[in-house]
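For reproducibility, we list the full input for the D-mannose complex.
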Amino acid sequence: MRQGWRWYGPGRDGVSLDDIRQAGATDIVTSLHDVPIGQAWTAAAVAERKQRVETTPAGRSPLRWSVVESIPIPDVVKRQGGRAKSEIEAWIASLEALARNDVKVVCYNFMPVVDWTRTDLDWVLPTGATALRFEQERFAAFDLHILARDGAEADYTPAERARARATFDAMSPEERDGLVVTIASALPGSTTDPLSLPAFRERLRSYAGIDAARLRQHLIEFLEAVTPAAEAHGIRLTLHPDDPPRPLFGLPRVASTAEDYAALFDAVPSPANGMCFCTGSLGVRADNDLPAMARRFADRIHFVHLRATKRDAADQRSFHEAAHLEGDVDMVAVLRELVAIDRTRGPGQELIFRPDHGHRMLDDLQKQVNPGYAAIGRLKGLAELRGILYALGAPPQV
Ligand code: DNO
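The corresponding predicted structure, in tokenized form, follows.
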């Protein structure tokens, strides 16, 4: 397996390419975050970024831009599927720009309106480090009392509504504003637009009538349209799971379980139709058996996010991001499966993983960081994961 590292690109990341070298990673995971969602990437812009990553100062180890995370899929594709022709054409043009520059693994997701969602970005751990967290009651307080979504009450039991009310009442105005920013303003790396509360409500209304079956059908139409181009260029597409892997705000999510993925692979068997195996997102559900999923989708996995979430004992829908080996996910068992998959891959097709998210700790507590993407916590996670790979007799390739 190869060690990747997400880098947000020039001007967007306090972590330098040399920092990444020191962490031991060899493969950069990045995106053209400056290009507005829906606009086609140009080969020149891709070439420029590639040059930035791959021009190695004398005496330094080389880095390679191996994975794109993500090319965002505009909202209209999620709402209209194959009818969103020009948006899908632009997406294919971005694939072509990447192919011309030999970047061949592309991650994307299909979450409507909001991408990855948390309620706390600096939840203090007993060590003094901080973690990302999703707390169901804070989420419900936002949904019911801040967003005040049409029809939200129906999604909660009376007891849940009472707890959400109490949570909301206990929050200061600043905390409420902070929660809006955390949930609605699109965390760095998100593939959805930042939204004001009125725009958020409007977006939700535009999904009226789109249930899980319809959203899945739109994803299938999208894949039918883009996989021929991906295949022709030798690009492997990897669908990132929903985070968290369940419906939010009454919106369907269709990449949360093994059955969700199986339905997509059955409908669009193209080998370009692959999966980003994110242990953090999938691991939030106790009914996702991760080693079994890795075995079942072995030939579909082309990119891996390794992190571990820990569900609350009191409410299994709440979780925080634990240290990489200390969550609910059996990381050793998962890595054993992934190593076996990697051994079947030829040169140039090795599995690329990245340590996903990390605690904010040590000097990073004093710095401004991208939530989840501080250097030291990820470096620690990567070091622990690398140790497992050595113990499994499969040291990472360099
Ligand atoms: C955050 C993430 C998301 C994810 C994209 C994939 O850390 O998991 O930014 O990378 O949604 O398309």
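The first strand starts at residue 2 and ends at 6. Residues 69-70, 107-109, 115-116, 189-191, 240, 243, 357, 372 surround D-mannose (CB under 6 Å). Both points were considered when choosing residues for closer inspection.
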